[in-house]
Design goal:
heterodimer, A: alpha+beta, Arc Repressor Mutant, subunit A, 9-stranded mixed β-sheet, 3-stranded antiparallel β-sheet, 15 helices, 40% helix, elongated, B: alpha/beta, Amidase signature (AS) enzymes, 11-stranded mixed β-sheet, 16 helices
Amino acid sequence: MKQYETVIGLEVHVELATKTKIFCSCSTAFGGAPNTHTCPVCTGMPGSLPVLNRQVVEYAVAVGLALNCSIARCCKFDRKNYFYPDNPQNYQISQLYLPICRDGGVEIETSAGPKVIGIHEIHMEEDAGKLTHDEWEDCSLVDYNRSGVPLIEIVSEPDLRSAEEVIACLEQLRTTIRYLGASDCKLQEGSMRADVNLSVREVGAKAYGTRTEMKNLNSFKAIVRAIEAERQRQIELLEEGKAIVQQTRRWDDNKEQSYPMRSKEDAQDYRYFPEPDLACVAVDDAWLERIKNRQPELRAQKLARYRTEYEIPEYDARLLTATKEMADVFEAASALCGKPKKVSNWLMVETMRLQKERGMEPEEIPFSPENLAKLVELTEAGTINSTVAKQVFEEMFSHDVDPQQYVAQKGLRTVSDEGALAECARQVIAQNPKSVEDYRGGKQKAIGFLVGQTMKAMKGKADPGIVNRLLKEFLEEE
Amino acid sequence: MELTALTAAALAEKIQKKELTAKAAVQACLQQMRRLEPELNSFVTIDEKGALAQAEEVQQKIDAGELTGPLAGVPIALKDNLCTEGLRTTCSSRMLEQFTPGYTAEAVRRLQKAGMIILGKTNMDEFAMGSTTETSYFGATKNPWNLAHVPGGSSGGSCAAVAAEECFLALGSDTGGSIRQPSAFCGVTGIKPTYGTVSRYGLIAYGSSLDQIGPIARDVMDCALLLDVIAGWDAKDSTSIRQDGAGGMPPGGYGFAEALRAEEAAGMVKCLQGLRIGIPRDYFGQGLDPEVKTSVLAAAQTLACLGAEVEEFHLGLVDYAIPAYYVIACAEASSNLARFDGVKYGHRAAAYEGLHQMYKRTRSEGFGPEVKRRIMLGAFVLSSGYYDAYYLKALRTKALIKQEFDKAFARYDLLLGPTAPTTAPRLGESLADPIQMYLGDVYTVAVNLAGLPSMSLSCGIDPAGLPIGLQLIADCFGESRLLRAAYALEQTRTERRCPLAQTEQPGAEQTIFAPAGPSDAGSEPAERSE
């Protein structure tokens, strides 16, 4: 069999996190009763006119800057005409001729090292409503709550060569956009949607093969499976000497198969033309400068800084910077207590464990950096021991309690009064002759049991170091 | 003098002075409608109850001294493509026969704020596509000067209603001449303001980049007063022009009427001294009715007598305006009218199988032939493979036409020409030959392509008793200049009232509308159902 290369380009739709819609002041909030977040504009009433939400432009420019795009100083909207009931005007306001961002790139890590994936353009557009078919009543219902929710579409160059690269690219995009606060980028909920354009060609061939576009990819796993399947399908066709039809296909993740939706021949003519109801968007120097100044430190910059500033392992730095929320808590807590390694441990071990246990997202950090810093300080000062600290942490994670107050209220301070501890240790020795005998008979490990018993008797609040030393002393004594 | 013959300014003054009430004004209009509507058909919807209720409310505010504006209490008619909350808005189409908007157009909201009273919605060419008001689903409106003729269009209902004194003022919309041409045909005064002067929010779009709402009145002062009410920046229309005090536009409003009053107070003597008026030779060529030509040139003479420097010049690209206009307007219309699909509002076919058939039947039934023709033309010029050849070329032509006007306005303050090549054609004459009808827009469409302000006013009557209109064109934001020249010209003319409007017919003028037949048009007050 010949050797084939897969060529992939992405079209990624991202729903922007604005409070209101792109062309009217209706709420973008999820979950309202059907057609309650609507007005004459987003339901396409005759005579209504769109007014652009400036925040949409700011987010689009912020994403464009983060992806090293050139920003159009004067961009325009165009109408994409097609009839479908989810689209109240029967045209979508989008950008074709002069998109807001062009010619950028996103750097990804691959097994062969770093690689830059070109970004062809980013444009702004409006989302459509939601159509549901009621089989029982045999009618279709349309909800325009999502109609007019702002989207950006990021179009990559056909620079990707494998599913691994596609996932790396999407993850990089997602992290960047989330750092910017421009979107939560959830594939399952549809706030990030990726269409995959894929073709194959013989290794060494110059020209691209005929491509297909794959839609309905709702998770990274589905994307990987769809790429593999489509690659196989195309190669098999070529091996059989058949031609690949340029078409749009729909992925069915349950059946792990795709189906043709429409081919190029019956592709719609969208009759794009400049949107006459909107003036061109002028992004002047001052505005661009304001957006630039507001850009947060992105992940790559953070990683580089962590390496030198915090002296924590690369692995830890990567985990901590995976979300901006985590990185923010890390930096704030570290600044407060001056113990980045300890803060990092709490975040990487206990926080991530509890998040996983409770089915929370990595960006959901339910406690304040102040409280985490206090907890670190309490532990470092020996005010509480590590067992108690975990207990306090759980309480802090669940209810964001102030560790200092909590420890004080519950009387959780470590007992380091040697008199009290000595008394307790002697009691434990007296009550456990078997273990004492074992220890004295050379089983050094038996002391562990006695330490545990002492800690238990002290309700966990004892300083385990002192307990250990005292027990040893007493056992050696007799 | 009959009440309906008053100008809006005079009426409002009398209402402020308690010599008349808003209710009396409304009733006089309703009475006139009862008398004339069965024949004239200038209204699609008459809101008798609503108008009387508004009159009551407005009168209370006037009595309380809360409404003192120069048009408070004046009844007005609205072209039926302006959305009015709770009042049916049809665009004279079967598609919107039962459509009642949930909101009011910004321009209309401003009228209401000024204490004006909405009488109803006037007939128009379906979706403003036409030059005769014959493409209306609700039947043609007749020309009040001669009922065998069309009133022009598409704002034919508004212009006929103003001329026939069924209302004192009206709003129209102008995409390619739709205010100016029927104003000329009906002997009234109408302005198409600079693009962006009046908010388009709530105007059901035909060609969005060309559409402007404008005033229609019986004289220049009334036009200026109404333009003052409706003009101004609106956050809801991204193409509306912001007044920030710069560029000669005071933040408190344009003050067009005030400027005229000041002019008048100064005596109007040689008031056009130094005004340079250019007459495009190209507007006086083939196809121009000699009667129209004579009247317009006579007006040019008058303007010269008033002190203006009038000279002929060559305006380029005149022949390219119509093709460029029809390509751009129809392209935008094909998209603007896509929303009328039976899904959300308006007409929906009674029987269909599946979505595609619902679309097809709904739109086949809901739209008339002229609308379909323009949608098809527009969809064609935007389609892949033709976009560059038609749409882009039209946009480039538009830019070049604007340059031609820029050159002209480097030399002249105003341009003067006929509004239309002929007076109002007979009913049924135009629709038979759409291309001929499109060519009638030769003098008006270029103004919309260039976004310029322009005004039509009456300058004579032809032997058939039909009014002749002239058109003044100014550079962008030159409305006050337009108004000044028009006002001066108007002072030199003897007032001519539309004979049909007069309840007590002087015998001599009876003959004017004799060709229409029914001489008892006025004697039978007919009820009109809505």
